[in-house]
Amino acid sequence: MFNKMCVGQQNSILFFRQMAKLINRSSFVALPVFVALIALLIAFGFPFKSYLVSLRQQRLFTAEELSLYNGTDVNLPILLAILGSVFDVTKGKSHYGIGGGYNHFAGRDASRAFVSGNFTGDGLTDSLRGLSSSEVKSIIEWREFYRRSYKFVGKLVGRYYDIQGNPTKYLKGVEAKAARGAQLLEKQKKEEAKQPSCNSRWSQGEDGEVWCDDGFPRLVQRPQEIALTGKMSKRCACFTEDQLSQQGLEVYEGCDYLSKTCRV
Q1: Considering Cα of 31, then 33, then 39, then 41, what sign does the dihedral take?
Q2: CB atoms within 10 A of CB 154
Q3: Spatial distance between the Cα atoms of 205 and 132, rounded to a whole number of angstroms
Q4: CA distances from 95 to 124, 152, 172, 174, 260 (A)
Q5: What is the spatial distance between Cα 196 and Cα 237, in angstroms, rounded to a whole number?
Q6: Tell me: the pLDDT tens digits for 99-151?
Q7: If you count DSSP H runs as helices and E runs as strands, how many of each does the chain have, helices first?
């Protein structure tokens, strides 16, 4: 019985939305029908309050509509989108309003710029094409930051959400890539924890140095890094003397084979 009621309410909501669209096109024709529909839904106990709350939470924006909320109109809230999720950042007006350091994010989805640092022209785009798992993971984390810090007000129709507000394959792919990046990062941390990292010290205008309290400093490749960032990198780890014959260990240039401290 409950399932039948839910289906009935869903059908009513869909019909309600269609009538609202019809009124926008021809209010003189549709208004009497719309009023009659309201009376009928009230008679059958239609949950208007919960529907209106749901409607606010599911508001769908086009790119053109979202661009109006860029802080230039003082009568409108300031909105931004990240991965298609739209947030009201008006309380951060000093940052997101006109003249603010983050105003380039207002009124658009510039997801890529959150990790690229390119805040002009083509850099202000929602395309994540070519970004690494680590970078995509960072953008997901930025989305979570906005969910915690600002009010979610709807979704942007386009790359990440379709016209019904459903997640697209692109969004699902982005989230899967970020999850894979998180798994790789965790795996890298566990593997590197098995081999102690070097101590390091850096000072402006002088060379830095790395050293080991127990063992000898060596450069070693980080195999997970290619999948995470698309680049191979190395780290300094400490190895005992009986481990120094392992393949892949690199002595710092100018450093003695059994020195515990190396200039870098």
Answers
A1: negative
A2: 23
A3: 33
A4: 17, 18, 30, 28, 48
A5: 6
A6: 999 999 999 999 999 999 999 999 999 999 999 888 999 999 999 999 999 99
A7: 9, 9
